Amino acid sequence: MTGADAMVKCLEAQGIDVVFGYPGVAIAPFYNSLYDSKIQSILVRQEQNGGHAASGYARVTRKPAVCIATSGPGATNLITGIATAYADSIPMVAITGQVSTRLLGKDVFQEADITGACEPFVKYSYLVKNVEDIPRVFKEAFYIASTGRQGPVLIDVPIDIQKQEFEYEEPGEVSIRGYKPKVKGHIVQIKKVVEAIQKAKKPLICAGGGVVLGHAEPVIQEFCEKYSIPVVTTMMGVGSMPKRHPLFFGMLGTNGKPYANRAVAESDLLIIVGARVNDRSIGALSRLEQDRLIIHIDIDTAEIGKNIGPTIPLVGDARLIFESLMEYDINVSFEDWVERLRNIKVNCVDYRTFHEGFINPCLFVEHLTERMDEDAIYVADVGQNQLWSADNYVMKKGRFLTTGGFGTMGYAIPAAIGAKMAAPHRQVVAVCGDGSFQMSMNELATMLQNNIKVKIIIMKNMYLGLVREYQYNNYDKNYIAVELGDIPNLKKIAEAYDMEYFHLRNMSKMDETIEAFLACDNSALFVCHVYKFDKVKE
After folding, report:
1. Which of 186, 195, 383, 389 is the most buried (most CB within 10 A)?
2. pTM for the whole thing?
3. Residues 153-181: pLDDT tens digits?
4. How many CB atoms lie within 10 A of CB 351?
């Protein structure tokens, strides 16, 4: 058996049934071995998008996914996809080809030190120099990617190692010195949490992306319902609670709901679950520490205390911790506090104004998601479209996918491809701006070639809207390098890729156009004209 054969066998042993990649000479032996495998190989049109597609696939299956690139520029193109997965804590194994071992460090054609380049963006990386290490390396890689705080692992395999013959031996149980992720919360800390909740008058749970990734939504919802504790989310935590749930008070942060931020400001106990506490989510961190007790629950020890000093740190898996908390009989009542937040929410005025001759994107997202299937998957790109989506998405039983940690434009279409591959019978809708759409529109070819029926919405304002808004607010309307123009002709783009085309300039036929768009059997492109905002808030 060759090293390449072993690589394929290892993927099969991990239950991998699809990989996303772009071949080249340095990874050709692996692809040749893949030819006789049942693993489906999806040819993306750019390596970065292979990483995003693997991310979308992993987030829906909740298992590590695989992306592949060749050496040199193929590998470096993949870095942004890897970094995006790392920032979003997505389990992924990235496989790259490399020049022959005897040529390493000699700056030969298409050589790149990809393990060194990716060091800040992976949980771990391997440069395989011994073919007999392949079974162990692959088993360890999938274990590392899927345990603890999940994330990408890189395996770089020189071409001569892929070609080399050896006698395959099944690897033993994974045991990595120094890597022992904690999943169960410490009993002493759990008791401290219980005591803090019993003493609190105005507790609030802030659910982050770790809640969704850890499949902790059901138990946290049950816990909150049992004790009437209100919930807000970060952007990555959208979907932790249904939008219409009486205990849900929206997304907090700079671009969130004012009443969600008020809830944080008035709370006396803030329970942060599976969220890094950053400037985009919560401002005035030092003041937050002074004014209330803070419990920070996270599976990653490094996140606790990084940006805010918690009163009670608790390391472990969110689902397991809340299952433990459910075992305690906590005698509390927070109905007055919840009623206070409901009154704030009802009386909160939205000062955003939208041009009457265009689409109101907030209403559009709300009406769209109300009409999507119960288990639909909504994938938001980066920019104004992401903020409108996260803030107005009507959560039912589906999934909301976006990249909040790295904020990578061009994410939505390839991630939606991966999501649709993972769940071919579920409705998948990708929402982009006209800027982010053009960063990955080449993947429409991947959709057509593989019959991947994703529905795509473009919020079109002919600008890089979020950057333009920033220039308005901070640089005296000195708009530079933000005008996209009315390019390309999107109707012709849809025709070129055999997609249905929908177009909406104002609100007059919004609902019926949305329904027709969602009902069509084919892939579809839906262009919505939104105003080029000089001001979002009065």
Report:
1. 389
2. 0.95
3. 999 999 999 999 999 999 999 989 889 89
4. 9
